[in-house]
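Whether sequence alone determines local backbone shape is best considered at the level of individual chains. When preparing material for the folding task, we compiled for one chain both its residues and its backbone structure tokens. No coordinates are needed to read the tokens, only the vocabulary itself. For completeness, the protein is quoted in full, as a sequence line and a line of structure tokens:
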Amino acid sequence: MAVRPATIDAYLATVSDDRREALERLRKTIHSILPDVEECISYSMPAFRYAGRVVAGFLATSKGCSYFPFSGRTLATLAAEVKMYAQTKSALHFDPKHPLPIVLVRKLLRARIAESDGIGTTRRARRAPGKRAPARRGPVAR
């Protein structure tokens, strides 16, 4: 079993040169946009914590590189801006030869921070931890 890296530097040391260069550039971009961001490892991947919440992460893959906003809604929120990239619900894939533009990374981070701050979320999503929704009374309409 492979040893899990404890730091982003340790992770990048295991990555091929072309992917390492692209991910180091992304790392510097994230730090330039959010100077107070903390580096961490989350879900076994290099990640960035801002105001106590993980807001971004990245990985090198066999096909290139991936950016993870750590939210299933961020990429949907910015669908028009990310439509030219291959993606899943939780990851944006890019070629290391064509890194993500700074403007796009800024939009991804702003959207993710807005989500984590509760802007644009439903009332149910903002409910305090441990609080349950009130019980429904009477028959359920179908």
About this structure: The longest strand covers residues 53-60.
